[in-house]
Amino acid sequence: MKTKLLFTALFMSSFIFGQDSLKIKSSFINVNPQNKILKNTNGINVGVLDDYRKQRINGINLQANPISLLYLLIPHAIEVPKEGEETATVNGLHISTGGMMDGKKLNGVGISMYHIAQETNGLSLNGFNNTSGKLNGLHISWLSNSTVSGNGILVAFFNDAEKFNGIQAGGFNDNKTGNGLQVGFVNKGEKFKGCQIGVINKNKNGKVFQIGLWNVNPKRKMPIINWYLKKEKS
Fold first, then answer.
1. How far, in whole angstroms, is CA 73 from its chain's centroid?
2. Is the CB of residue 100 less than 8 Å from the CB of residue 116?
3. What does the pLDDT read at residue 18?
4. pLDDT band at residue 68, thresholds of 50, 70 and 90?
5. What does the pLDDT look like over 79-137, one tens digit per residue?
6. Adjacent-strand bridge partners of 222
7. Average pLDDT over every residue of 21-48
8. Which of 233, 112, 217 shows the shortest CA–CA distance to 225?
9. Maximum alpha-carbon separation in the chain
């Protein structure tokens, strides 16, 4: 009886996982680049260079990229991959001497020199920069964090966001619309609501409290302390 129950459970589990793998098979250990049948990973994935395809990695992704320093020689910033141009999704731990340049999503912890993906959730530590369409969580980069929208904490020399709710800490912080706290040498906002602490603080619209050497808001320009508590201009 126990043997029959075990056989039935194994059969059902293989059927369930098989439904998710009709197009892409899965294995416990994979090596990238994959020259044969594309496989997802439920375990450990080991890669060389930034050579991914549309695959899902659940577990640990280890990547070696010996030419990562050449990234600094690229004359322009690499943009977030467009829909259909993205590659791997990593759920778990991603460690790389280089990084991803066209990832779809990272959910978990990422430690790399650079990271470019459509969405990043969790914790990322980057030697160069982190550029994602969405950044949720704690993201620390040496050069820059750039995002369209997100929530959490951004720490870098330069932080840039279209809409971010949380904390930006760095030399230069730019948040078009958002709520929270900016701490840096220069803080800028278009419709930022919250507090700016720095040497130079600028906000074109939105309720804001400013502490710095020079503060600019829609109502006045003042040193040391400035504030604007009225509703946004239409």
1. 22
2. yes
3. 39
4. confident
5. 899 999 999 999 999 999 999 889 999 999 999 999 999 999 999 999 999 999 999 99
6. 215
7. 82
8. 217
9. 82
How far, in whole angstroms, is CA 62 from its chain's centroid?
Answer: 18
* Residue where the block lists tokens 């001497």: 97
Q: What does the H/E/C string look like for the chain? A: CHHHHHHHHHHHHHHHHHHCCCCCEEEEEEEECCCCCCEEEEEEEEEECCCCCCCEEEEEEEEECCCHHHHHHCCCCCCCCCCCCCCCEEEEEEEECCEEEEEEEEEEEEEEEEEEEEEEEEEEEEEEEEEEEEEEEEEEECCEEEEEEEEEEEECCEEEEEEEEEEEEEEEEEEEEEEEEEEEEEEEEEEEEEEEEEEEEEECCCCEEEEEEEEECCCCEEEEEEEECCCCCC
Identity of residue 144: S
How high is the mean pLDDT of the chain?
Answer: 87
CA distance 138 to 118: 16
Sheet holding 144-155, edge to edge: 25-32, 39-48, 56-64, 89-96, 99-141, 144-155, 158-203, 208-216, 221-228
29 with 47: CB under 8 angstroms?
no
User: Do 32 and 51 touch, CB atoms closer than 8 A?
Assistant: yes
